[in-house]
Amino acid sequence: MVLNGSLTVLLKLSLFHSYIGYLVYLNFFQQSHPSAWPFMEPVKKSEAPDYYEIIRFPIDLKSMSDRLKNRYYVSKKLFIADVQRIITNCREYNPPESEYCKCANMLEKFFYFKIKEMGLLDK
């Protein structure tokens, strides 16, 4: 039984560290959480004209998918940093009581719960 558990952990780690693992995880993240909707695509200038003046490093889930296709994520640290950047950008631009920040908070809790559950968060 211990061997089976160890193999499961190794499989999760190797899957997460691979291109396909990131892609699977990102697709799961996008499709399975109702609070992901504000972060699916880049912010439109027509909806937030000053966004790109305030946010120096914009990122969204579509851009993360593009980065995956271009093999940008060579480590889980880069992947996690981009998810965290989505959250940080949202909090920097929007008031704390906004629907966007509420979504960011829920998404952040969900994301960290999932990576802790999989044993992928460095201590």
Order of helices and strands: HHHHHH
- Share of helical residues: 55-70%
Query: What's the alpha carbon Rg, rounded to whole Å?
Result: 16 Å
Number of strands: 0
Measure the end-to-end span.
26 Å
Describe the structure concisely for a colleague.
This protein has 123 residues and is mostly helical.
In words, what does this structure look like?
With 123 residues, the protein is an all-alpha fold. α1 crosses α2 and α2 runs antiparallel to α4.
Which descriptors would you attach to this protein?
single chain, mainly alpha, disordered N terminus, 123 residues, 0% strand
Record the SSE blueprint:
Layout: H1 2-17, H2 19-32, H3 51-54, H4 61-69, H5 76-93, H6 99-117
